[in-house]
Amino acid sequence: MAPNEILELSLNDLSWLIAGRQLSSAEAVTAALTQLERLEGKLNAFITVLGEQARAEATKADEEIRRGNYRGALHGVPVTIKDMFNTKGVRTTGGSKILQDWIPDTDSTLVERLHAGGAIIIGKTNLDEFGHGGTSTLSHFGPVHNPWHLDRIAGSSSGGSAAAVASGIGPISYGTETGSSVRRPASYCGIVGFKPTFGIISRHGSFRGAWSQDHVGLFARAVKDITLGLDLAAGFDPRDPASAHQDAPAYTSQLEANAKKLRVGVLRKFLDGVDPAVRAAFDAAIKVLASEGGEIVDLDVPELSYAAMTSMLTSSAESAGINRRWFRERYHDFVPHVARGLAVGMAITASEYLTAQRARQRIREALRSTYEKVDIIAAPTTARVAPPLSEGVRGNGDDARHASYNQSNLLRFPSMLGLPGCSLPCGINPEGLPIGMQLIGAWFADQKVLNTSAAYQSATDWHTRRPAIASA
Amino acid sequence: MKDQDNLAHRLALLEGVTIAPADLETIAKEIADNLRVVAELEEFAKETPWISLQTQPAGKKA
């Protein structure tokens, strides 16, 4: 099989071919690494590339599979991870100068599970410093470029992961989300980004952005690939205090592309200010869900007007608490915008933080009632397509730390409340940039979100579009 | 507390870190913005009970 054909394969197809020994892990890893080497000078999506190690592990995986010791869907598959996860013996920077040479002596839980499942980690992706940002321009290692248009941001903070998957550098990547850092870059890069319910995937051994909002999430091009990656990563972990007791993950076996009789809520009052092309794509996507048997329900949840403020105050205070020592000792080693953000967080008092938690509780109760009326909330993932890199942190339009901008509220409430959310490609704007729709479910309704997402993908082909750079 | 005093009190929390004047100006502006946000959230959440979660052993039964 030609390398460019390998890069086009979904994780599901790649996995079948490797399991059936019709394609070797060595071939798959080489194809992904070659693509990485070809594009990295343009994308800057990686901080550390594990070429030699990955090739050796691929050879070992092929040998294991040949002997009949097949370990599951990710065995021998090239994957990438955000440089937020500790990797034993491999530097783990968090996108920061402070840890630019730090080599952990243990793996994060995610990495342990990837190794146990035989996945081949080919590289660690670029990000905003310690996950503090929405653009992937706030990395000590320079900005990530969007593969659809190199002068645009990739979104963040998991921008490197999204850019990698969109470019065919591995069929799946693992990132993290505190505010919108999986769904936003997925939307900007035209791929699927899924953030499960808080506690489904262990965060042990990864850097904290804000402990009460941090999630591990996944990027892929198809929903089934997300479930394959989720089955490996999910599960209770006593080392993460937020880890949820849960049944053995079976998201793939329970995946059913079905939106029939599903009540899909749309918060129309929050759609003011959405770019016309994004709005048109979203309206068309809603019609698709209706044609798949979904019932569209107009919703109004006025409490959500306070979601962005509450989320930002919470994460600002928590990130200052987490970085308190480095703030005092290494202030000038932080990326300047991040350092200023930490300073603002340091000045938040305990009673102000608790006020934000009280507000958060009110919003949570409003959502609890809302999910008695609907199964899923649908919204554009972002109000506009990927902004130009030249606009910097202002480009997102919702990055002012306390914006009350409607779209910020829609983007941030799922992470703040720990709800499962999936961003799906749902259009391309006239400039050729991808548009995303997000589907948000109730707590632990992850399967319903994934099944609805699969139903949408089965009726559309937006997820099959690739940036030109991927095949050039 | 007057706004000016309040801001000075906040900036005093950053004591010991050398911050450029231009950065301090940005930080002060954002702190002032936070004060507005907290006032809004206080009003929004005034009828909501305070959170009262304890850390208890996992799997504990009464």
Give the topology:
The complex is a heterodimer of chains A (472) and B (62).
Chain A: H1 3-8, H2 11-19, H3 25-43, E1 46-49, H4 51-66, E2 78-82, H5 109-116, E3 120-125, E4 145-146, E5 149-153, H6 159-166, E6 172-177, H7 183-189, E7 192-195, E8 215-220, H8 223-233, E9 263-266, H9 276-291, E10 295-298, H10 307-322, H11 324-330, H12 336-346, H13 350-373, E11 376-380, H14 406-417, E12 421-428, E13 434-441, H15 446-459, H16 468-471
Chain B: H1 3-12, H2 21-44
Helix pairs in contact in B: 1-2
Model description:
The complex is a heterodimer of chains A (472) and B (62). Chain A is an alpha/beta fold and 472 residues long. Chain A contains 16 helices and 13 strands. Chain A has an eleven-stranded mixed beta sheet with strand order 1-3-2-6-8-7-12-13-11-9-10, with helices on both faces. In chain A, α3 packs antiparallel against α4 (51-66), α6 packs parallel to α7 (183-189) and α10 (307-322) packs across α13 (350-373). Chain A is globular, with a radius of gyration of 20 Å. With 62 residues, chain B is mostly helical. Helix content of chain B is 55%, strand content 0%. Chain B contains two helices and no strands. Chain B is elongated. The N and C termini of chain B lie far apart (46 Å). The A-B interface holds A 238, 245, 303, 306, 309-310, 312-313, 316, 327-328, 331-332, 336, 339-340, 343-344, 346-348, 352, 354-359, 361-362, 365, 401-402 and B 10-11, 13-14, 16-19, 23, 26-27, 30-31, 33-34, 36-38, 40-42, 44-45, 47-51, 58.
